[in-house]
UniProtKB/TrEMBL annotation:
InterPro entries: GreA/GreB_C_sf, Tscrpt_elong_fac_GreA/B_C, Tscrpt_elong_fac_GreA/B_fam. This is Transcription elongation GreA/GreB family factor. It comes from Sphingomonas kyeonggiensis. Coiled coil: none annotated. It comes from the Bacteria. GO terms for molecular function: DNA binding; RNA polymerase binding. Residues 1-18 have a biased composition (Basic and acidic residues). Residues 82-151 form the Transcription elongation factor GreA/GreB C-terminal domain.
Length: 155
């Protein structure tokens, strides 16, 4: 029989499952971000311990490996200097005539729809290091953003 017509098992025809990609750069987090990572690890460990279908368990284990790596590499960002934007800052800005409040956080706790931006996002990068009252360049436009206020994100 031709090799083309024989099939040892369905396993040899499955697509490989790769590990979840890790974001590049340091894993800077806020205290809240580290707590969220810890909670996610505990949730996944409980789900794996509960058992279930093998395929579902493999997916959970894969996700658990990702979150364990994130927990291991997490570095709590130092508190930003008073009056200077950094990771853990809540920043009130004016951009294109509109005011907006943005929290600068670690990658895993970012939620752009809730104005929680990763410190690696282009807008966050433009703001980090700026001071209250300063105007910063963004998207190729000089003085595109005005920093109106800076405070530490409340717990």
């Amino acid at each position: 029989m031709s090799v083309a017509f024989r099939r040892e098992s369905d396993e040899e025809h499955k697509e490989p499952k790769f590990e979840l990609p890790l974001p590049p750069g340091p894993n800077m987090v806020t205290a809240r971000g580290l707590a969220l990572i810890e909670a996610k690890v505990a949730e996944l460990e409980a789900a794996v311990a509960a058992g279930g279908e093998e395929e579902v368990l493999e997916g959970l284990k894969r996700e658990l490996r990702y979150w364990n790596t994130r927990r291991t590499t997490a570095q709590i960002a130092p508190a930003p200097e008073e009056g200077v934007v950094g990771i853990g800052s809540r920043v009130r800005i004016r951009m294109a005539g509109k005011e907006r409040v943005i929290d600068l956080v670690g990658h895993d706790e970012a939620d752009p729809s809730a104005d929680r931006l990763s410190f690696q996002a282009p807008l966050a990068k433009a703001l980090i290091g700026a001071e209250e009252g300063e105007k910063v360049d963004f998207a190729g436009k000089p003085a595109a953003i005005e920093i109106i206020g800076i405070e530490t994100i409340p717990d």
